[in-house]
Amino acid sequence: MLEVDFSMVIQIINFLLLLFLLNFLLFKPIRGILAQRSQKTRSLQEEIDDYTNRSERNQKGIDEGKIEAGKEGFLEKEKVKGLGLEKEKGLLGEANDIAEKTMDKAKQELEIKIDEVRRALEDQASIFSRELSEKILGRTI
Fold first, then answer.
1. Which segments in the chain show pLDDT lower than 50?
2. First to last CA, the chain
3. Spatial distance between the Cα atoms of 141 and 139, rounded to a whole number of angstroms
4. From CA 129, how far away is CA 123, in angstroms rounded?
């Protein structure tokens, strides 16, 4: 059986002393290092979270900027398109005016030539009719 004597008290004191020394020399420094490491890990995780949040905000800003730029680009394109259509209408109007003037001038020239040809044919028709009547009648008129 187990006997309680002086050596057991020494063993208990030895155990407590060893426990105190190990705690002082080994366990406390290791716990301190682990606490520092945990604190550093937490601070780094907070920085990571902060940078992630900033990155997300920046990405949202970029996406919103792209959308806004797309809208502005579309509006600008429509504006330029409208100006182009107006200019096209103006150019087509000018071309139509020029074409009408050219057509009017050509009609006038054609009418003048038709009148000239008609007069020439009338003159020649009277000559031809006289010659024809002379040939049919066999005498001069």
1. none
2. 182
3. 7
4. 10
